[in-house]
Amino acid sequence: MNKPNRLWILSLLAVFLLAACNLPSAQTPTDPMASVRTAAALTVEAMFTQTAPAQSATALPTQTPPPTAPASPTADPNLPCNLAEFVSESVPDGSQFFPGSVFTKTWTLRNAGSCVWTTAYQLEYVSGNIPDILSLQKLTNGAVAPGQTLTLMLNIPLPYEPGDYRADFKLRDAQGVQFSFKNPEKTFWVAVEVINTSLNLAENICAAEWTSGAGKLSCPGKPGSSGGFVYADASPLLENGAEDDEPALWLSPQNTQNGYIQGVFPAQRIPEKARFEAVLGCAKSARACDADFSLYVQAGVETPRLLAAWNEINDGAFRRITYDLTDLAGQNLRLILRVDSRGSAVDDVLHLLMPVLRSLQPADE
């Protein structure tokens, strides 16, 4: 091979070698959109994380042990297995009812022992002179753990014969063992009087449940309480400045615009030829008093029915109010007393002197 040809071949080889040095390597090619796609994927993941609804744990049904199985004790071995503690009750002792009334009595008890009160536990009627109460009844529809409270609601059917009536109760565990409080001889009870004359609501004031826009109110209440108040007064000073020797209810709604207060009395069987009576007025010192007093009745869980309403202002004179209940005779009804402010409630303090459900006897006609 002559020299020019060799030079040409060498030059060609040099070109190929230089080209080979610039060829791409055998690595996996990169995606120029990879960073964009990664950012988008993270954004979608974040969106799903933020918008996915929170998965709350589903409450499983309480597993009720069979009646023969003992209740499971807690970790505290120092407490007795079965022990109750009294918390509160409705319808105080001595509350009065007309013959044949059926009302609801409640007791709130705390489980002060170490065992769970199960659906196998029972309420036992241990003594008394109210005939139509079951001797044993189911205590609860669910488990009541130590430290929890249970409100018992029992319908009490009263006899038609006037007199004092009482029923005493204890509890029974799943094995039929009777128990109650720290003193095991103690019971909880209902004690009322059946009358066939007039029922004075001022003397039965705390048999009612009193509420306002502020919630449930204590009974008797404290005069001047901003949440509203009710209390009985044995010597009320009436709107006209006269002091009376008959009992009165003082009612004041929650101290707010258009405030109200109402009391729901236990159910009464309305007697024949009955009527509601009271003397309505404002407190003598309540110069700006302007409120409505309303009378309602309620049957069972039905919507309360308005019977009558009266407006009262402080004009220096009280008024006698009455409502004939003859059309309601024989019905078992809750009576509701309510006061509504007309605007500001600052000066709305009303008295109901001698508020009674009067049962007319033949001699009264």
Question: Can you summarize this structure?
Answer:
This protein has helices at residues 3-21, 34-51, and strands at residues 84-89, 95-97, 102-111, 122-128, 136-138, 149-157, 163-172, 178-179, 188-194, 199-200, 209-212, 215-216, 229-233, 248-252, 260-264, 268-269, 274-282, 290-298, 305-313, 319-324, 332-341, 350-359. 10% of the residues lie in helices and 37% in strands. By secondary structure, it is mainly beta.
Describe the protein's architecture and organization.
The chain is mostly beta strands. The chain has 2 domains: 84-194, Immunoglobulins (Immunoglobulin-like), CATH 2.60.40; 199-364, Jelly Rolls (Sandwich), CATH 2.60.120. 10% of the residues lie in helices and 37% in strands. The longest helix is centred in the N-terminal third of the chain and has 19 residues, at 3-21. Mean pLDDT is 83; it is low at 2-75.
Low-confidence runs: 2-75
- N-to-C span: 156 Å
User: Strand content of the residues, in percent?
Assistant: 35-45%
What would CATH call the class of the largest domain?
Mainly Beta
What's the main sheet like?
7 strands, antiparallel
The helix tally amounts to 2
Question: What is the CATH topology of the largest domain?
Answer: Jelly Rolls
Radius of gyration: 39 Å
Globular, elongated, flat, extended or rod-shaped: what is the shape? globular
Order of helices and strands: HHEEEEEEEEEEEEEEEEEEEEEE
Helix content: 10-25%
Name of the CATH architecture of the largest domain: Sandwich
Number of domain modules: 2
Q: Label the structural class.
A: mainly beta
What integer is the average pLDDT?
A: 83
Question: How many distinct beta strands?
Answer: 22
